[in-house]
Every structure is written in C-alpha cells, then in structure tokens.
Amino acid sequence: MNKKNKIPDFESALKVNEGIEQPSQINQDAINRFKNKRQGLLSVDEYVEGVLSGNRTILSKAITLIESSLHTHQLLAQQIIERCLPYSGKSFRIGITGVPGVGKSTFIEAFGTYLTNLGHKLAVLAIDPSSSRSKGSILGDKTRMEELSVDPNAFIRPSPAAGSLGGVARKTRESIILCEAAGFDLIFVETVGVGQSETAVHSMVDFFLLLMLAGAGDELQGIKRGIMEMADAIVINKADGDNLLKAKTARVEYQNALHLFPPTESGWHPEVEIMSARLKQGIDRVWNLISDYQMLVKENGYFELNRKHQMKRIMHETIEQMLLDHFYRQEGIKELIQQAEIDLEINKLSSYQAAYKVLNHYYK
Ligand code: GDP
How far is residue 334's CA from residue 329's CA, in Å, rounded to a whole number? Predict the structure, then answer.
C-alpha cells in the first residue's frame, strides 16, 4: 500500500508507535505520565494494575477510555487491552436478548443475584446501537437493577453511547477483555431483540439466550427465524398467574419448532424453559441448563473452537471494515461513484467496468 493509502487513524490507534528514539536523559515514560496526569488520566501501569486487582473504579475508567473517541484515549486503551489480554478469556459469556418489555432487566437482576449468591463474579454489559434510552431499556437506568447495582460481586455497565453497530460491538468486546482480566467469571451481554445487534452479540458470547413471551406471536415479538436459530435456549418469561398455562403450551410449541432446525455445530440441542423473573421462579432451571451446555462444549472442544472462530471472524471483519472506511473516505471517490452510477443508467458501462473504473482511481 502506498503512502497515500495508509490508514492513519486506525493504524496509529491500534499499535504502539515506535516513535523517534529519545536522547537518554529524557524519560519518555515520565513525560507521558505527566501529560496523562494533567488530563486526569492514570498511567498504563496504574490502569493495568487497577484492573488486574479488581478495582472497579479503575475498571470503569479504563472502559471509559475504550468508549472515548479521542485519539489519545484510544491509544491508552489499546495499550491497556494488550497488557490485560493474557489474563482474559477465562469467563463464560452469555448473550441475552428479547424485545423491550419481555423482562430482560428483571431477569438479569434476579438471575444475576442468584449467581453472585452462588459465589460468581458477574459483569453485565450491553449493546444498544440505537440507544434510544427513552425506552428505558438496556441498563440505561440502573435503578431497574436495585439489588445487582449495589452487589459487590456484580459490575453493571450501560451501553456505550449510540454509534455504528460495528463500533459499539468493538467497544463491548474490548470491555469484556478488561472485565475478565478484573476477575469476573461470568459476563452477560444484553441487547434488544429488534435488529442486527443480536448477530453482533452472538459473535462474542459462548451461550445465546433468547427471552420470549407466551402468546404474543412471533411477529409481534419481532423475532426473526434467524435469531431463533442462533439461540441455545429460549426462555419464556412471565410464566406466572394467568399466564402460566399459556407459557407451558408455548414451551411445547417452541420445543417442536426448534426440532425442525438443523442440528447445531456445538452438538447441543437448544432447550426451551419457562420462568417468572418477577417471582424468581425457574431461575435455577435456567442456570442448570446453561451449566449443562457449558459442560458439554468444554468436553467436546466446541467451546475453544468457537472462541477461536470468533476471534478470527472479528479480525477479518475489522480488516474489511477498515478498508471500506478508507476507500470511501478517499478524496474524489464519492463523485466518481456518482458518475459511474450515471454511466450505468445510460448503459455506457457495465457494472464491472464501472467498479473497475472507481477502483483504478483508488489504487492509482
Ligand atoms: P425489558 O424491557 O426487557 O428490560 O423488560 P423489564 O425487565 O423492564 O420488564 C418489563 C415489564 O415486565 C416490567 O413491568 C416488569 O415488572 C414486568 N415483568 C418482568 N418480568 C416479569 C415476570 O416474570 N412476570 C410478570 N408478571 N411481569 C414481569
């Protein structure tokens, strides 16, 4: 790639620049520390030590750096992540999705408290690229999780501010690394089941849990077949009061529907459970089910295999995204594409010829 085609922003954000060698009497580390301090930042060592010792305030600050769009913050964040990476990966990651109102917050509060009582350390993260907080969903309002938000063994982090799905997903993935390095052995990643974000969450978790309601109709719940196919478990919530019978019937229906799907790569047969998050009933069954899955995939090797696939897929996606961004940011490309579209309309060029013409300009 020639100089013109270098990717300045991302490249410098993702690596530690070698820089110019300094005369020995100048201590670059000390200068950086001084600069960081002036901006209210800690040194890389301080962030890393804080995260590794499980200091939640420092963990929060480090995640804030990940979420920041400032170049200096990104630089710092990438150094922290790199140092934390060897200590990450040891958790079990659970994706939780379902339409607004299905009971995600209530479930996470009940399930989370159940798990910390069992001695687990739980981090709850979220992906919500639309981030219309007015819906009151996606951990925007911590008071919705009264118990969990003050639980010393739980760490709740609301979704990063709205942005492109790719950007928000990257921030969440990087936050997972830091939470794991901080000793959290269970990670929840919550998302609203209405769009593309389920696929992003699915690509970063070990287990994907879909919350549903009985009798609401799949169309009403906005759940696409593709999402049901991704689920390792469907849990029908609000199985209480008058709704209990309906939930039991729905359970059989969903179980039958799942049988029609092709077998999963993991060797696991997705299960359907019923629960009442409000009454905290059925929570233990959900955990048993997840534990069974965990045992199976750790034994048959799928757990490791899937993690490796996920990492490779993310790398490829990142490369593609960066190249695309760089391409469309090139001067003159937009105009050239507009012209090519006109040429297509009047049959002056074929689609391939038009594409080559634009690409030629890019590679020139
Ligand atoms: P979210 O938008 O998916 O996070 O859903 P919430 O957790 O905010 O729940 C939406 C509404 O459903 C709230 O009024 C909850 O009290 C109620 N709810 C949640 N779980 C249950 C349940 O198990 N049974 C009943 N009856 N209501 C529930």
Answer: 8
- Asked if residue 183 and residue 62 are part of one domain, the reply reads no
The verdict on 212 and 248 lying in the same domain is yes
| CA of residue 107 to ligand 1 center, whole Å | 8
317 inside domain:
no
| pLDDT band per the 50, 70, 90 thresholds, residue 135 | very low
- What's the distance, CA 196 to chain centroid? 12
Q: Do 73 and 210 belong together in one domain?
A: no
Nearest residue (by CA) to ligand 1, atom 6, is: 103
**Which residue range is the domain that position 185 belongs to?**
88-309
Residue 362 lies in a domain: no
CA of 177 to the centre of ligand 1 (A): 30
Q: Which atom of ligand 1 is nearest to the CA of 135?
A: 2
Q: What is the 3-state secondary structure (H, E, C) of 87-145?
A: HCCCCEEEEEEECCCCCHHHHHHHHHHHHHHCCCCEEEEEECCCCCHHHCCCCCCHHHH
* CA 52 – ligand 1 centroid, Å: 35
What confidence tens digit (pLDDT) does each residue in 1-11 have? 444 444 445 44
CB of 272 closer than 6 A to ligand 1? no
Q: pLDDT at position 271, please?
A: 93
**33 and 172 inside one domain:** no
HSE at residue 199, side-chain half, CA atoms within 13 A, is 9
Q: Confirm or reject: Cβ of 104 under 6 Å from ligand 1.
A: yes
Instruction: Check whether residue 42 and residue 175 sit in a common domain.
Output: no
Ligand 1 center to residue 274 CA distance, Å?
Answer: 14
- DSSP string across 73-86: HHHHHHHHHHHHGG
Check whether residue 156 and residue 282 sit in a common domain: yes
Q: Report the nearest atom of ligand 1 relative to the CA of 277.
A: 23
Q: How many CA atoms lie within 13 A of 3 on its CB side?
A: 0
Instruction: Determine the distance separating the centroid of ligand 1 and the alpha carbon of 14, expressed in angstroms.
Output: 41
Which residue's CA is the closest to the ligand 1 atom numbered 24? 238
Q: Is the CB of 98 under 6 A from ligand 1?
A: yes
Give pLDDT tens digits for 238-268.
999 999 999 999 999 888 888 888 888 999 9
Q: Do 48 and 7 share a domain, yes or no?
A: yes
| pLDDT at position 34 over 80 | no
